[in-house]
Design brief:
The complex is a heterodimer of chains A (198) and B (266). Chain A is built from six helices and ten strands. With 198 residues, chain A is α/β, with parallel strands linked by helices. In chain A, the strands form two sheets. Chain A has a six-stranded mixed β-sheet, sandwiched between helices. Chain A has a four-stranded antiparallel β-sheet with strand order 2-1-4-5. In chain A, helix 4 runs parallel beside helix 5. Classes of the chains: A alpha/beta (198), B mainly alpha (266). At the A-B interface, helix 2 of A face helix 6 of B.
Chain lengths: 198, 266
Amino acid sequence: MPVLRVKGLCYQQYGPYSFTIEPSQCVSLSGPSGAGKSLMLRAIVDLDVHQGEIYLDDVNCSQMPATRWRRLIGLLPATSQWWFDTVGSHFHSIDNTLLQKTGFESDVMHWQVSRLSQGESQRLGLVRMICNKPRALLLDEPTASLDSNNVELMEALITEYSHEHAAPVLWVSHDRQQTRRISKRYFILDTQGRLTEE
Amino acid sequence: MGAIALSPLDLSIAAILVLMLAGSSAWLHLGFGKQVLIASVRTAIQLFLVGYVLNFLFAHVDFYWIAGISMTMFAVAVWEATARQQRKIKGWRSYAINAFSIFISTFTLIVFSLVVIINEYPWYSPQYAIPLLGMMLGNCMTSVAISIDRLTQSLWKERGIIEQRLLLGETKNQATLELRKASVNAGMIPIINAMMTAGIVSLPGMMTGQILAGAPPVEAVKYQILIMFLIAVVTGSGVIIAVWLTLGSLFDKRDRLNLQSMTTDI
């Protein structure tokens, strides 16, 4: 069962932060912009320089190549980026049931990325990340710019994945109603960079 | 077959044409007039100087003199290659990368071609060493500058995409594959185009010069082919090394993109 454990994490002028997220547990993280929420997620996936220890299942981040760590800890940014012409070129393997759950048919793989709406782009970004089979999820306001229909699809898929794979989830969100829906633990990062649990 | 020696008057007539070009630039407000005048004066002075230097070298064939001139040419090439990059790695590292990639590719190839292909005694005979080195350095410098400029610009513009790919677990090499290809290609295009159209659309400068100076065309052609091949190899290897080193210093051991080490002014 994967447990995400952060011990004395520091990055730039922020920190140290220590917390543990249990298997299948979803923790929401909110706070004013500029408090370092996105930076915290980037530090946890080892995309930014940081001090302190991060463990998944008692395995330390520094014990494996960063590229493997980033597959194990999936980070979904607020806007997903696409660089090839078609959606399908961004996928190595694709699970059709995942597509259906997010409201797509398998022909979406032939779509041009230039005609994706923001909602489609975010939903497909989530599918793409989940295809890596991450053991823990970090979500950086993944639904901030989406309509309620898209939000519902995303929340359902993330919650289902987290329960099915016992994945710990750290979800950055500003929406009070959303944090109530998705999580039972609430972290708040204030402007001074203090992390408190509500 | 001798050449007609150009008189000062002949060159002055050509210079007047350049002056007229600069004049029309001023008249049409196109703004390149000053640049073209400075460049023309520099061309005249630099080429005359190098002519006298070569005269001196041919009269005193000495390894240390030739090595000294070669290193001066090399230093200027590195300086120019670095100056032409809009965005570069901060501090001495961009100079070091350009110096290393230009030095390794140019100097190994020049020694090889002088010893194995030209095979003159002594092997550093300035009549061959200096012009060959000049051709190689000039082309290598331009291509390295184009490639690295392309690489750093597109890394900056596409950093969001690179980081997205890293987030999905790609290595720095996977995440920058298309960028690296495009950067290396950008540096290789000038010589590939030159080889593709050589003799059909344009006569290469060196060959033209030789023929004008009275050499038999087929002899000039053989040297031109040699030069083209050497330039292709020297730019290719220089560009590959420079792109590889630049990427290496913009990512760290944990495959993180580190753009803070790049200058931000455009």
